[in-house]
Amino acid sequence: MSESPQGPPQGAPPPSPPNPDPYGLGATSSGMAPHVAAGLSYILTWLTGLIFFLMEKQNKFVRFHAMQAILLGALYIAVYVVFGVLIFGAMASSAATGTAGVASGGLLWMLMMLLYFAFFVLWVVCLIMAFTGKWFKIPVLGDLAMKWS
Predict the structure, then answer these.
(1) pTM for the predicted model, two decimal places
(2) Residue 54 class from Cβ within 10 Å (0-12 exposed, 13-18 middle, 19+ buried)?
(3) Residue-level pLDDT at 27
(4) What is the DSSP annotation of 18-33?
(5) What is the CA radius of gyration of the chain?
(6) What is the mean pLDDT of the chain?
(7) What is the pLDDT of residues 5-52, one digit of tens each?
């Protein structure tokens, strides 16, 4: 009969507990892993960014990504409003000028769709970088987020 071992062999060091902070980003106020909190701050852009920014008091990594999520969401809304007004104006002017307004409205709409795709790609990149514990700064927005966090 063979006996199964009941623990580590004699003289072996005890197994180490799992590392709660594998990226070395420090502790958070919420007790959540910093890379998870930073990643979650991007889920609903400015809304979850604001929640995590107000909730987190000590971790710069989480506060930075939360502020960057707020700024990214605010920029998205601003672009949405500006293009909405421009497209509406172009379409409204087509009634008075003929097809020129429709053509410019169509071009503006295509540019807006291209920008929305760029925002989506940037959002996914930010999400991945935050969840993997990396400092990723969007040009201009990242500098503002670093300053304000």
Answers:
(1) 0.80
(2) exposed
(3) 85
(4) PPS-TT-----TTSS-
(5) 24
(6) 86
(7) 565 567 767 766 666 566 668 888 888 999 999 999 999 999 999 999
